[in-house]
Write a structure and sequence with these properties.
seven-stranded mixed sheet, alpha/beta, 37% helix, 331 residues, elongated, 23% strand
């Protein structure tokens, strides 16, 4: 039996042993005898990378034989960065779904807390550190009733990208939410690897979105550039960070292509549509009868490079040929 951890308000509770979680016994029969499974998707916040995860998840299901209107019904909810709404959505899904998908850590944790004892399998998506988020035992061992796809950032590739574009830079600024486990974990990775590339990390933690403006003002006086993560709260205020950074002629590096499309200079990141597709493929395995507890979480192996040529020109920065050759250019 796999190790299991029940999350309730981010605490670890309970030791009950449940059977393997699959969706094979759920669903409703159609007139033709085919089962129709009810799937709930909850997205913690409204921003492009999470939107891409959602769309990719639906694509991945379809590519693996599960299509809305035929053998699945999908309900999508967005918590709008509201913890109380996030919990309410999870509790509602726990009473009506055969399988659920949580996009971003808070949504996945809330779903697991609500669905575990009911035996409803939980697929997570866009979680940088599933072990730290208490949604996996290890990289090779899943927990009871939950697994998914991690968006662990290629931090070393990002540091190399920053060094290639800014050969004289010394200090990288990072804004992060202190209560977001993924952000804390990724920040530690930045701190560990930065000296290898001749950088010092200067960070500022926030508790809520309203604090981003002041934190950005302080940070921009101390650094040569900013490297943005996939922190939900900070990403929601990316426009503010970019406005302030551009006013000081300080480049902001994104963590994925949508952030670059929105004005960051470049990123060494992930393809979030592909991330979602991979989660959809895992969900299809569970719907076909595989015990989710036997599926360790997965990661994307390929780094996607993106550069914003308009931003680079506005900042007076020349993108090296070696970077331009491997990156997708956006304006």
């Amino acid at each position: 039996m796999k190790k299991k951890i029940v999350l309730v308000a981010a605490a670890i509770l309970g030791t009950a042993v449940l059977g393997g979680c699959t969706a094979q016994q759920g669903g409703q029969d159609t007139a033709g005898g085919e089962k129709v499974y009810k799937i709930g998707v909850t997205q913690y916040a409204d921003h492009p990378s999470l939107d891409n995860c959602r769309e990719g998840f639906i694509q991945g299901l379809k590519e693996n034989g599960f299509e809305e209107g035929k053998n699945i019904e999908i309900e999508v909810q967005n918590a709008q960065n509201d913890a109380a709404m996030n919990t309410q959505i999870a509790q509602t899904f726990a009473g009506s779904k055969d399988l659920v998908c949580g996009i971003a850590t808070p949504s996945a944790q809330a779903l697991y807390a609500a669905c575990y004892e009911k035996g409803i399998p939980v697929i997570f998506n866009a979680i940088s550190d599933p072990v730290e988020a208490k949604l996996a035992v290890s990289e090779t061992e899943a927990m009871q009733g939950v697994s998914g796809i991690s968006d662990q950032l290629p931090v070393e590739d990002q540091l190399q990208l920053i060094r290639d574009i800014l050969p004289e830079a010394k200090k990288i600024g990072i804004l992060y939410t202190t209560s977001e486990a993924n952000s804390v974990s990724t920040l530690e990775t930045y701190r560990e690897l930065a000296p290898k590339y001749g950088f010092e990390i200067v960070d500022r933690g926030i508790a809520k979105q309203a604090e981003v403006t002041q934190a950005a003002d302080v940070l921009l006086n101390e650094v040569d550039c900013i490297s943005n993560m996939t922190d939900n709260t900070v990403v929601a205020a990316l426009a503010v960070v970019l406005d302030k950074a551009n006013a000081k002629n300080i480049p902001v590096f994104g963590s994925e292509e949508e952030q670059v499309k929105n004005g960051c200079i470049a990123s060494a990141g992930l393809d979030y549509v592909q991330l979602g597709r991979q989660a959809g493929a895992m969900a299809a395995k569970v719907l076909n009868g595989t015990d989710i507890s036997t599926l360790p979480y997965e990661t994307l192996q390929e780094t996607k490079y993106t550069v914003n040529t308009t931003t680079a020109e506005a900042l007076g920065i020349q993108i090296p040929e070696a970077v331009a050759a491997k990156a997708e250019a956006v304006e």
